[in-house]
Design goal:
GO terms for molecular function: D-ribulose-phosphate 3-epimerase activity; metal ion binding. The chain is 37% helix and 16% strand. The chain starts with a helix and ends with a helix. The chain is an alpha/beta fold. The chain has helices at 2-10, 44-53, 76-86, 105-111, 126-135, 150-153, 182-191, 208-214, 223-226, 231-252, and strands spanning 31-34, 59-64, 92-97, 115-119, 139-144, 162-166, 196-200, 218-221. It has one domain (31-252): Alpha-Beta Barrel (TIM Barrel), CATH 3.20.20.70. It binds D-xylitol-5-phosphate and zinc ion. Residues 35, 37-38, 60, 62, 95, 168, 170-175, 200-203, 220-224 line the site of D-xylitol-5-phosphate (DX5).
Length: 253
Amino acid sequence: MLRLARLAASVPRLQARPTTNSRHSMAYSAKIGPSILSSDLSCLGSECVRMMECGADYLHLDVMDGHFVPNITFGHPMVECLRKTVGQDPFFDMHMMVSRPEQWVKPMAAAGASQYTFHLEATTNPGNLIKEIRESGMKVGLAIKPGTTVEELAPWANQVDMALVMTVEPGFGGQKFMEDMMPKVSWLRSQFPSLDIEVDGGVGPDTIHKCAEAGANMIVSGSAVIGSDDPRSVIALLRTAVAEAIQKRSLDR
Ligand code: DX5
Ligand code: ZN
């Protein structure tokens, strides 16, 4: 409770709405991106195809370098293979949990990544990195770990396509959802009404309503989708919850 109050207090309250020069002119919509981290990694290609066939809107690919996070997954050579397997259409949101995000921009673009989501904590020059990602032809996502405030993300929000609010400490699938991150999502939604806001970590049928009500519209779900006997129904349930919250918000305006 104390922790919740402290985090809520760290959310900035009075700030001018930075609506001018916003790159988010389109209304946002509900999108579900399975994280394939918890799938059988020896079958990543067929798992990606299966997720798209089950109605996924995009694929969330977790890149870990064993340094920024205490775990290691895969890099751009794997992305290149996945792109060949799934074809040109699926949107690849690369969640770059790496210490030197600058290093992988060009290789990821060449491998077929659609969006490069880097961590604010991993760079000293977000502005330059945003520029490099865009010049490489990818969309830009900006992620914050649970200990980072939205105040730190806010100055960049109008320059990126998506903000990712982590709802677990990055590194592993299957962790408990941190509800005390929701004030960050609500604040971002109030300040940036058209921004794509993603949540990642512990999100599934039990926690989706909190995320949807707070204003998240891009939903990463790993174990809840991959571990289900019926991923199609879970994806549909998640999307309906978000779509209903979006509709309610637009009626409340
Ligand atoms: C954690 C990763 C997540 C993770 C989500 O560091 O960024 O994408 O795979 O998995 P679940 O939904 O199981 O928490
Ligand atoms: Zn992730």
